[in-house]
Structures are given as C-alpha cells and as structure tokens.
Amino acid sequence: MKLKQIEEYEINPCTMFIKPIVYGSKIYSEIYEVEDEFLSPFKPLDIIKNSCEYYGSDYEGRRNGTKHLVDYAHKLPIAIEPTNRIFFFPTTSPDRQECIWISQEHVKNNPVRINPQETLILFNNNQSYTFPVSCRSIMTQLERTAHLRTKLMQRIEFNERKSFYLLQWPKAMEASEDSHSYAKKKIKDRQ
Question: Could you tell me if residue 149 is inside a domain?
C-alpha cells in the first residue's frame, strides 16, 4: 500500500498504530489503519496530543488520570477516548524520537519474539508488523493498558448503574405512594 499524505489526522477506532519516520530533516508519522495507511507531517506524540484534544481532553490530563488510576510512572498508556475503546500505549518514552504508539484494541494475539530487540505483532485485520522493541516490553505495555482500560470501564459502568438507580427512584416512590393511597381507600371502604 502506498501512503496517502494528509495534513490533519485524529486517531479513531480504526487506527492500529502510529510510528515515526524520518522524512527529509523532519520526523513525520506513518499511520496504519485497518484498511489504510497515511503519512502525516506531525510527530506521533503530536497526533496523540491532538487526538486527546479532539475528544475533549488534553494529553497531560490523560497522563495524570492514568497515573492516578493505575499508579504507573513511565511509558504510560493513554485513554484517548475510553467510551470508544481507544487506548494507546507507547513502545518507549513518549519523548523519545523513536516512540511508536500502538492501539491495544487491535492487537490480535500475544506478540512473538523475533530476537531480543524485535517483536512481531499480529493485528485483528490479520496483518503483522515487526517492531524494534523487546517482546517483554510489549507484553508489559499490553498488560498496563488492559489494567487501565479495566479500571476506567469499571468506573464508567458503576456510574451508569448509579444513574440508572437514581433515574428509577422517582418511579419507585410513585409506586409506593399509589399503593399507600390504595391501602387508605380499602380501609375507608371497610368502615
């Protein structure tokens, strides 16, 4: 596939990974989606940051939220948009030029070690790519991202259940009031 050059890009549910590429004297991004590939003039971290903003947050807020929820300090996974299951993890420190960002949602199987510093990842679309990172590091990042995802989804589901009960409360009160009124009527009828 030939890379389509684009000016703007927001991470979406089809985005599998974003990797840096030297393009002239600058760092660009190769973006791999389920059925497409793009070349962006922005660095991968810039795309991550812009995507967080696109979905109504900012990168630092997402980082701080991750630290608070799962108590990790380095190579933090980011919940770019949790309700659409858009969680990405970095392969190294996000500040490093060679950092690749991978979507946990699209990883199909456990990564395969090729050698100490290379790992093969099979994605849900049955395409596989080799990454210049140890298999152990990728496994750790997948586990961290799954942990973050679980914690966030538990909180979202808890709040949904809480909202459901709060919305049902007035109906429950009406039903008990009605039955109370019926009980009074029956007592009056007996007299």
Answer: yes
pTM above 0.85? no
Q: Identify the domain containing residue 130 by its residue range.
A: 4-168
Q: How far apart are CA 158 and CA 155, in angstroms?
A: 5
Q: How many domains does the chain have?
A: 1
Full pLDDT tens readout for the chain, 191 residues: 578 999 899 999 999 999 999 988 999 999 999 999 999 999 999 999 999 999 999 999 999 999 999 988 899 999 999 889 999 999 999 999 999 999 999 999 999 999 999 999 999 999 999 999 999 999 999 999 999 999 998 887 877 777 666 777 655 555 555 555 555 555 555 55
Q: Is 75 inside a domain boundary?
A: yes
Q: Residues 26, 1: contact at Cβ < 8 Å?
A: no
Q: Which of 75, 77, 80, 81 is nearest to 94 (CA)?
A: 75
